[in-house]
Amino acid sequence: LDGWEKQTLTTLGAMALAKFIRKVNIDSFVSDMFMFTKSGILLLSWMMDQRIFSWYCVAYAMLFLYVRRPEYKGPSRIEWLNPATLKRLVLEPDDTDKNVAWLVEFYASWSPPCVSLEPTFADLSCKYTTADLKFAKFDLMRWPKTGEEYGINVAGTSKQLPTLILFEKGKEAVRVPHVYKDGRIARARLRRSDLIAAFALD
């Protein structure tokens, strides 16, 4: 291998190691590795032949637009909310349900971090759902005004997707990622162990 080829592979290896250490789950790690590999091939094709680079760019764009990461289809105990059920079940529960806490994921289907979190959130719902704790998801793309009410930015550059909020007796108790008083957004830690600790599930 030439020097620039070794440098490219070394860079990819370092990025892979960093991603593995910080991975949300193995699915997200594999997805990131495919992306890094395609990016590395893109760089190498530019070095070899710009015609190959051009064709690869076309193929890369087609894959990006039409071949999306598959949705999670495994077991879960997640309930799906809309504005009406969010209000009735979570924000204004009746006397029989007022002691039920809700861990709600506000998500957007196009967001890679939201897609990566799906298996982890589903697994947590299967393990920790009880009579006093329910898990739910709320689609911000269908009801963006609700996101605005909770100060969740749904732009493509947003650092707030997904946002997980634990509601207790109709009030927000814990939020990930945390929003500071000055408006800064804390770095979201979405690994299974991080979420268990943040919401005191154990």
UniProtKB/TrEMBL annotation:
**Superkingdom of the organism of origin:** Eukaryota
User: What Pfam families would the database entry show?
Assistant: Thioredoxin (PF00085)
Q: Name one GO molecular function term.
A: protein-disulfide reductase activity
Where in this chain does the record put each Thioredoxin domain?
63-201
One GO cellular component, as annotated: cytoplasm
- Keywords tagged on the record: Membrane, Transmembrane, Transmembrane helix
Give the transmembrane ranges: 52-67
Q: Which organism is it from?
A: Ostreococcus lucimarinus (strain CCE9901)
This protein is called: Thioredoxin domain-containing protein
